[in-house]
Amino acid sequence: MEGFPVADEAPEAKGILCFRCGVCCMKYSPRVTTIEAEHIAESLGISLETFLERYTDDSWFEPGYYLLDTQDGACVFLCESEDPRMKLCRIHSIRPQVCREWQAGLEKRECLEGLQKCWGLMVDVSGKLSGPEEKLHEFLLIFPWWGDNSVT
Ligand code: SF4
Ligand code: SF4
C-alpha cells in the first residue's frame, strides 16, 4: 500500500470518530443480506430487482448475500461532499451491517492513509497527531474531538 503514514509500527488500537476520508469505502465492497437489500431498495423507492441490477455485482455469488458494486474505484454509494476532503455515503442511515460494524481507529491503516491523503497529517506510534501547522489547525477546527493531548 502506498503512502502508509507510520514508519515503523502502528499506533496502539484506539477508537476514534470517523473523519469521512472514504478510504475504507474505496478498499472494500460490503456485502448485504437479502433483507438489507430489500430495505435499501425500498428506501430508494425502487424494486429489489432494480436495486440488484443497478447496485450489486452480478459476478459475485454467495447464498443469501449480495455484494455492493463499485464505481470509479469505490463503493457505488460513496459520493463527494462540498469539501473534497470528506466523502458521503448516500445510504448512510440505512447502510449495511458490515459498514456499521466497521469502526474508525488509530491502528487502522485505512484511517491513517486517509489522514495523510486528505489532510497531509500523520499519527505517531504514541497516537499523537502531527503535520503542517495550517493543516493541523484546519483539521482540528472541523474535528475538535481529536483532543489537545493528541497533537504535537
Ligand atoms: S454503503 Fe456507505 S458506508 Fe458502506 S461502503 Fe458503501 S459508501 Fe461506505
Ligand atoms: S478510513 Fe477511517 S476515517 Fe476514513 S472513512 Fe473509513 S473509518 Fe472513516
Gyration radius (Cα, Å) is 17 Å
Give the distance, in angstroms, between the N- and C-terminal Cα atoms: 26 Å
Per DSSP, the total helix count is 6
What structural category do the secondary elements indicate? alpha+beta
Tell me, rounded to a whole number, the average pLDDT: 89
Shape: elongated
Q: Structurally, how many domains make up the residues?
A: 2
Could you name the ranges where pLDDT drops below 50 across 5 or more consecutive residues?
1-7
Report the count of strand segments. Answer: 8
Strand content: 5-15%
Helix content: 25-40%
Bound molecules: iron/sulfur cluster
Topology as H/E string? HEHHEEEEEHHEEH
Q: Name the quaternary structure.
A: single chain
How do the strands line up in the largest sheet?
A: 1-2
Q: What profile does the largest beta sheet have?
A: 2 strands, antiparallel
